[in-house]
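Field reference: sequence -> structure
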Amino acid sequence: MSFTRWLRRLAPLMVCLVLLVTACSSAPSKYDQVQEDTTGFRAPAAVDKKAEKGGTFNQFFPDDQGGYDVIPYQEKKGFAEYKLEQNGTTMAMLTINDTASLPSAAEKFSSATETVEGFPSVDQGSTATALLVNGRYQVKVLSRDPSFTQADRVAWLQKFDLQGLAQLQGAANPAVNTAQTPAAAAPAQKKPGFKLPRMQIPRPDPILQPAS
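Structure field:
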């Protein structure tokens, strides 16, 4: 009887324990799901050691013109970005990035059917147009206002110093040292010296001794 009484007292505790375990293993809340979905979102990609410094690209961006202001926005290794503003409104974003850190970004240009200033060009969705210089440097214009059209993006791509970018020599294309190394000096020839003629000395005949 005492054992039955003990079991009755223990039963509620067991039920509570089961409910607690079930609650802990239930499906994650919507907040947990959001955290899982956004983990790593906008995390910086690994940058190749050979990628150009972002500051190297600044010289190739367009200047202020036609009522537009070209304003520095972001710079990091392998990437530089400017805002294109008109009367205080951001119309587009202008970027240059080194695809050494993301080779897949350059692969899409292999099937390009359009060119801008002789460089392969592609549209990315309905708001971005890009071209690739020397198979490595991606120049892109992204619309940030509905009135900034695909034709506007192409026009601003042409305002970049693309030829200057094509001649970039730095981490990606180090200048080749064309200075000729001095030729190795020829080994000094030995001066002929006086040599004595070789003489052959006759071997003495063996002397036979009588056996004792």
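Note: The longest helix spans residues 2-24.
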